[in-house]
Amino acid sequence: MKVSVIVSVFNNKGTISDAIQSIILQNYEHIECIVIDAGSTDGTVEVVKSFGNKINVFVSESDNGIYDGLNKGISLATGDVISFLHSDDVYDNKNVISNVVRLFSNDVQGVYGDLVYTHRADVKKVVRYWKSGIFSTPLLDKGWMPPHPTLFLRSGVYHQYGNFDSNYKIAGDYDFMLRILKAGVLVRYLPSVLYRMRMGGKSNRSIKNLLNKSKEDFRAMKKNGINRPYLALFYKNSSKIMQLIRR
Length: 247
What we know:
By secondary structure, this protein is an alpha/beta fold. The protein has one domain: Spore Coat Polysaccharide Biosynthesis Protein SpsA, Chain A. The protein is 35% helix and 24% strand. Strands 1, 2, 3, 4, 5, 6, 7, 8 and 9 form a 9-stranded mixed beta sheet that branches. It starts with a strand and ends with a helix.
């Protein structure tokens, strides 16, 4: 089973190397590393090129936002399974992809796990712990979702249900997950930390971004038929308090 890992980046020469290294260090052999750069001008391109043939596909050109870039990566991926790693982030350990692949079967179309938010300067220092849990459809009406960066999906899911809606600026991943989970895509939970995300990403960088994220979340809920979206949005946002406590 080939796993395509799509790395999205824009002007982030400080951490892109960490992200790519965490892919290279995986103990699973059949990995396709795809880097989609949105036309960086700060030296990011040179950092990526320094990895040579460790990068299977590299594209650097302007795009219409993060979800347009991710869709571009999906169109270039040749793996049986597709996942995403943002340029600020790293996999938790070298066994992540091999452990994920073991959970795929003929019926299982996706695997997800837990995520920790870390201090920006030190990915070993945990700020929040997002523990996912086993999925059931009623949880969606309570604002539940798996951490998108931990979600590994068969490529056929994108062919069947479509890619990210690039009209969203922050919540396109949430909209996509509601779409596929509501449709009955079978996913399996791996109860361990798979992903380390540095604080300060687009959705949590400022109060303004958090408010915009909530507005887009609400729009995605209504679009995908979530019951009582106001209540679901409250549950979704309040779950972050438990993540802080759980750390």
